Amino acid sequence: MNSTEPMEPIFDHFENYIEVSNELKSELTKRIKEVHFRKSELVLDANTICTKSYFISEGILRTYFIKDGLEITEYFSASYEWVNSPKSFILKQKDIYYIDAIENTTAYCLEIEDLMYLFDHFPEMERYARLSMGSVFGHLMERITSIRFTSAKDKYEHFQKTYHDIYHRIPLGMVASYLGITQETLSRIRAEK
Amino acid sequence: MNSTEPMEPIFDHFENYIEVSNELKSELTKRIKEVHFRKSELVLDANTICTKSYFISEGILRTYFIKDGLEITEYFSASYEWVNSPKSFILKQKDIYYIDAIENTTAYCLEIEDLMYLFDHFPEMERYARLSMGSVFGHLMERITSIRFTSAKDKYEHFQKTYHDIYHRIPLGMVASYLGITQETLSRIRAEK
DNA sequence: ATTACTATTTGATCTATGTCAAATAATCAT
DNA sequence: ATGATTATTTGACATAGATCAAATAGTAAT
User: Fold this and answer.
1) Are residues A25 and A101 in the same domain?
2) A70 shares its domain with A157
3) Which chain B residue is nearest to residue A129, measuring alpha carbons?
4) Which InterPro entries does the UniProt record give (chains A, B) (predicted)?
5) What's the CA–C1' distance between A184 and C21, in Å?
6) Residue at A77 is within a domain
7) Which residue from A111, A177, B21, B42 puts its CA 20 to 30 A from A71's CA?
């Protein structure tokens, strides 16, 4: 079996946090399968419990919710990151978040049951989850600071840094709602540079 | 030995996420010790690596950083929560956050080395950490939403909900910097109700 | 108790950003 | 390609909240 090659980016990702044994690799390979989404395709419906986690290899997904009839972007996710609806996924309950594809996207899908199996049989997976959540935690704290005390322009610059590989591929309206400013303001900020 | 009683709130906290064996209880009891801080006392200096995590049993701690010479509150922590400087604690490096006591505070202190020992010998501790971080994660996401799209008044109301047990014990200036609004605005909001 | 210091309130402006509206520009479907 | 949606830009105006300044109120130290 030579099909482990596409799994390399996932293994690399894990190896930022833990050592990945061959046994774990083979379990991961067995349980993770490739999926594709086309641009605009819905990945997760908010009226649904999120039972899958996706590791993106190509493309961009957007997590958003609806407020007063408008789509508000919670965050964007790009290559080599896991995406799911965190509370829904962990607590097996519905949450407000939709996920869709901003571009045609290739990802690796892991079901919650399989993840639970891995947690139960590979304690290092628990450690991986704890450590990787720690780094996400740091990003959230940074983002909170960036939102609280900065002008619309500074927010946009922070966004460009955070998403420097992909920011130019994201429609203006989605960026504006992510930043909590209006499209018009964002458009003017872009224009003046 | 009958001194395990004051540890009960900690055990209860853990039992929200995992089962706590007697063996784990005795290890926790051995490794956690009670500490006290007086009002205004510095708990963590930003020029320092955070090596301790505190579980508060009484009082309020404040995590803040300095921006343009001003103290900006990152968050408040009250009874039955763990406090540390997350990135500093996990990555053993300096970060920007100070922690001090808003009131006289009693807490239980766990050193990072002891925590690491527990992670290594009790896989359920890894699971506890993963799950409890998950719920903190949810709060951060909520807070981000609350900051992005609401008026100063709504922010203050969200703050009151989040900290309903303690919000009235926190000085106005600290609340204002937590919310990212000026003291004057906050004062006016309070007045009009 | 009295003084000094710190925190909060109140008032008068000012400004960044929102809102509403309309004009372009870009993208999509036939 | 052509027309129909949809996204972005531009303009005029409104406003929440910031800033600056000064008056109270509250707290702590002698």
Assistant:
1) yes
2) no
3) B130
4) cNMP-bd_dom_sf, RmlC-like_jellyroll
5) 12
6) yes
7) A111
Interatomic separation, CA of residue B46 and C1' of nucleotide C15, rounded (Å)? 35
What's the confidence (pLDDT) of residue A138? 87
Instruction: State whether A127 and A36 are in the same domain.
Output: yes
Alpha carbons A135 and B90: distance in angstroms, whole number: 9
Instruction: With respect to residue A143, please indicate whether it lies within any of the assigned structural domains.
Output: no
Helix, strand or coil for residue B101? strand
Same-domain status, A51 and A120? yes
A35 and A122 belong to one structural domain:
yes
Residue A51, in any domain of the structure: yes
What token pair was written down for B100? 């001090």
Q: Smallest Cβ distance to B126: which of A72, A123, A145?
A: A123
Q: Which residues of B touch A133 (CB under 8 A)?
A: 130, 133-134, 137
Helix (H) or strand (E) holding A76: strand A70-77
At B71 the pLDDT is 93
| Strand bridging mode B98-101 / B42-44 | antiparallel
CA atom of A37 to C1′ atom of C27, Å: 20
For B47, the domain range is: 5-123
A131 touches chain B (CB under 8 A): yes
Per-residue tens of pLDDT for chain B, all 193 residues: 444 578 999 999 999 999 999 999 999 999 999 999 999 999 999 999 999 999 999 999 999 999 888 999 999 999 999 999 999 998 899 999 999 999 999 999 999 999 999 999 999 999 999 999 988 888 999 999 989 989 999 999 999 999 999 999 999 999 999 999 999 999 999 998 6
Q: pLDDT at position B137, please? A: 86
> Does A38 share its domain with A83?
yes
Please list, residue by residue across B24-46, b when 16 or more beta carbons sit within 10 angstroms of its beta carbon and e when fewer do.
bbebbbebbeeeebeeeeebbeb
A191 strand D contact, CB < 7 Å? yes
With respect to residue A70, please indicate whether it lies within any of the assigned structural domains: yes
Domain total in chain B: 1
Instruction: Express as a percent the part of chain A with pLDDT over 90.
Output: 87
Classify residue A60 by burial, with Cβ atoms within 10 Å: 0-12, 13-18, 19+.
Answer: buried
Nucleotides of D under 7 A from a protein CB: 7-12, 16-21
- Contact at 8 Å (CB) between B105 and B61? yes
User: Is the CB of B121 inside 8 Å of chain A's CB atoms?
Assistant: no
- Scan residues 160-189 of chain A and list those with Cβ within 7 Å of strand D: 171-173, 183-184, 186-188
The CATH number that applies at residue B103 is: 2.60.120.10
Check A86 against B137: CB less than 8 A apart.
yes
